């Protein structure tokens, strides 16, 4: 069964250590990181170094149902505004259905 690992690291050195641990685990467990399906995002606006073979994204990345982005406004939009709008729409539709239902 595929999993969705999620890792936050502080800097490039931390990322290198995390990838080394993932590789060690993979050697023991017989698993490997699928770099073609992996994404990475630099949340530090000043650091543009991209030292890994993993694709880098400038767009929001969704992991475990949560969007992550370099922009706080974008994260609020995807994680809060969209969900509230969807829930309000569902509530209104439910109300309309109940109003039109003859008991």
Please tell me about this protein's structure.
With 103 residues, the protein is mainly α. Helices cover 46% and strands 6% of the residues. A hairpin with a 2-residue loop joins β1 and β2 (66-68). The protein is elongated, with a radius of gyration of 20 Å. It starts with 11 loop residues before the first helix and ends with a helix.
Helix content: 40-55%
Poorly predicted runs of 5 or more residues: none
In total, the number of strands is 2
Largest sheet, if any? 2 strands, antiparallel
Task: Estimate the global geometry from the Cα principal axes.
Answer: elongated
Distance between the termini: 46 Å
> Which range does the strand content fall in?
5-15%
Going across the major beta sheet, what is the strand order? 1-2
Radius of gyration: 20 Å
Helix count equals 2
Derived structural class? mainly alpha
Quote the average pLDDT.
77
State the order of secondary-structure elements, H for helix, E for strand. Answer: HEEH
């Amino acid at each position: 069964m595929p999993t969705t690992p999620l890792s936050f690291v502080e800097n490039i050195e931390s990322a290198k250590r995390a990838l080394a641990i993932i590789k060690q685990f993979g050697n023991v467990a017989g698993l490997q990181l699928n770099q073609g399906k992996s994404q990475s995002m630099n949340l530090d606006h000043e650091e543009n170094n991209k030292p890994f073979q993993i694709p880098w994204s400038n767009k929001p990345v969704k992991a475990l149902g949560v969007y992550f982005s370099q922009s706080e406004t974008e994260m609020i939009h995807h994680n809060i505004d969209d969900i509230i709008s969807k829930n309000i729409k569902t509530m209104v539709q439910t109300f309309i259905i109940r109003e039109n239902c003859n008991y």
